[in-house]
Design brief:
- The chain has 19 helices and 16 strands.
- By secondary structure, it is of the alpha+beta class.
- The strands form 7 sheets. The chain has a 4-stranded mixed sheet with strand order 9-10-13-14, with helices on one face.
- Helix 1 runs parallel beside helix 5, helix 8 runs antiparallel to helix 13 and helix 15 runs antiparallel to helix 16.
């Protein structure tokens, strides 16, 4: 592997890498602590390092991190608090001092200022060729647009600055979210599309296709704010450009997306990579921690690398587990863990041996059908009988069903024991307690481009095209031989169907809170479905109109010499 060059004033270095690819094929992120170093930023190498530093903020507190995931995953219709979750956020009991919001706010603005520094200093640099300058600026403006996109969706009207802050500033003013879209986010992405290449030599750098994808999603969100058909038309045009790009295609099997040895594949438009090197991986991707139940405290089990380190943060709601028509749709089976095998000699049940089934979550109640795959991936249909439950309990396995009343010999789900989302698991970690995962975080993938297009077509009353886009994603998700059963027609298309199709396809991928707020479903869906098993329904009781936005962090307000202002209701 090539040695990473040393640069002065390095605060830390994060490298996008993988155990399969050599380092020089991946984007390395180098954060320069002193952006005012005039001599350093006058060279092509120095400016390139500054661009790499701008990428580093993507995963400081947001993508694949607990702060960002907490603000996008739970407190929705699909995920409530696990027993060890940060309950004030998921139960809408937070105020302006809430830490997750401040961490995300601060990180986004740090990233924005780094981007502003690069754009400003590169623009006036006369020593570098124009094509190189435009490429560096385009990457940075792509990132700046993404950082602002996070802020306006979470907080609404926020401070807008497109120039570098060097000294201490004590005043800030709020700009309307619609103005930030029209004067910053959209122009930045239009510039990126015009000046970025189709592919990059370093995997992880922004591309033209990634910018098209992001701008399509921006126009979709912006269209909901403006109510203008032309914004949805632009979203469609950009999404179709991504879909029609011959360099990208859906994988034939949904499960292949989550194979940790197959992360650089034809479906991924843009992702954030994480290194296997403990000296350079930084925070890593921590998604693997948050969706796992407390299996390691159950009979016959102890914590292992293969089964993951359970943080017990996000438990699926009963509504989430009802999303799939499991007879035809294989995504439930391919997204969740179903069997745990005994691995703890100190905690075995009577008649149980290492390697026996210790825990079984069939995902259904007694008397209901459930579906598994055979060795060739084909669907097998079974029925959970009480006799089977009794037999397994008397031997080695504890069987958990969604409703304990339908399981005479077992028990039901709780805030600590529930269906565990398996798609983010990371078996490459060196130790059982290691938090810093190496899995890529998929920020943009082709399946979502189809779903963005479907929603935009729906908003322009083209239900035939909306159904076509949805059916492509749904048929890929089908059990072999049942593709036609997953096909839908224009008469089937509703906004609720689009919302739930996003839930089925993008579960846990930091999308749901944005989907609910964008479409106007947040309050009604939380009141109807955000109920963790055996837990008080704080979210149901507490959510109100003010929660369509997060509060402006109190730290921001306190640090302003002028009156920055707070979002309504806080």
């Amino acid at each position: 592997m090539n040695k990473i060059k040393q640069i002065t004033r390095i605060l830390f270095i994060l490298i996008f890498a993988s155990s399969i690819q050599s380092c020089n094929e991946y984007l390395k992120e180098e954060m320069v602590s002193d952006v005012s170093a005039e001599s350093y930023y006058t060279t092509e190498a120095g400016l390139n390092d500054a661009v790499e530093a701008a990428y580093s903020y993507l995963k400081v507190m947001y993508f694949g991190q607990e702060d960002g995931m907490s603000m996008t995953v739970y407190g929705t219709d699909l995920h409530a608090n696990g027993s060890d979750g940060r309950k004030v956020l998921g139960q809408y009991r937070f105020d302006s001092s809430e830490g997750n919001s401040w961490n995300v706010w601060r990180t986004m603005y740090q990233g924005i200022n780094q981007c502003n520094a690069v754009v400003g200093r590169t623009s006036v640099n006369e020593k570098i060729r124009e094509d190189i300058k435009s490429g560096l600026i385009a990457q940075t403006r792509f990132l700046r647009a993404l950082y602002y996109f996070v802020l306006v969706r979470q907080f609404g009207d926020v401070h807008l600055s497109l120039e570098e802050t060097v000294g201490v500033e004590t005043e800030a003013n709020r700009t309307s979210a619609t103005t930030i879209y029209s004067t910053a986010i959209i122009p930045d992405l239009e510039y990126a599309i015009e000046n970025l290449p189709e592919t990059q030599s370093e995997y992880g750098r922004a591309t033209k296709v990634a910018a098209q994808f992001l701008l399509s999603k921006v126009y979709l969100t912006y269209g909901w704010l403006t109510g203008k058909t032309e914004d949805f038309d632009k979203s469609i045009e950009l999404a179709q450009a991504v879909i029609d790009n011959e360099n990208y295609s859906l994988l034939s099997d949904y499960a292949d997306l989550w194979d940790i040895n197959n992360q650089k594949n034809s479906e991924v438009i843009w992702s954030i990579q994480n290194s296997t090197d403990p000296l350079t991986r930084g925070t890593g991707n921590r998604s693997h921690l948050f969706f796992l139940m407390g299996y390691d405290k159950l009979p016959g089990m102890k914590r292992s690398i293969d089964y993951g380190r359970p943080y017990i943060r996000f438990s699926p709601t009963p509504y989430a587990l009802s999303l799939w028509d499991r007879k035809y749709d294989a995504r439930y089976y391919k997204s969740y863990q179903h069997v745990w095998y005994a691995n703890n000699t100190a905690n075995l049940l009577p008649n149980q041996e290492i390697g026996d089934t210790a825990i079984f979550l069939p995902g259904v109640n007694v008397g209901e059908k459930y579906y598994v795959a055979d060795e060739n991936g084909n669907r097998i249909e079974r029925t959970l009988t009480q006799e089977y439950v009794n037999e397994r309990h008397n031997k080695s396995a504890v069987i958990y069903t969604p409703d304990e009343r339908n399981n005479e010999a077992g028990t039901g789900y709780s805030e600590r024991v529930y269906a565990s989302l398996w798609k983010f698991i990371d078996p490459t970690r060196e130790s059982i307690n290691l938090k810093e995962g190496t899995r890529d975080f998929f920020v943009m993938r082709l399946a979502e481009a189809y779903l963005i297009a479907a929603e935009a077509y729906f908003k322009t009353d083209d239900l035939d095209k909306a159904a076509e886009m949805l059916s492509i994603v749904r048929k890929r998700a089908a059990w072999p031989g049942f593709e036609q059963e997953m096909n839908i027609s224009a008469n089937d298309v509703t906004l609720e169907l689009i919302l739930d199709e996003r839930g089925r396809e993008l579960l846990g991928e930091m999308q749901r809170w944005y989907d609910l707020t964008r479409m106007g479903f947040l309050i009604d869906r939380v009141k109807a479905y955000c109920n963790a098993t055996n837990s008080p329904n704080y979210a149901v009781d507490n959510i109100s109109e003010k929660h369509l936005l997060r509060p402006i962090p109190q730290n921001q307000i306190d640090r302003c010499s002028n009156d920055y202002g707070q979002n309504p209701g806080y």
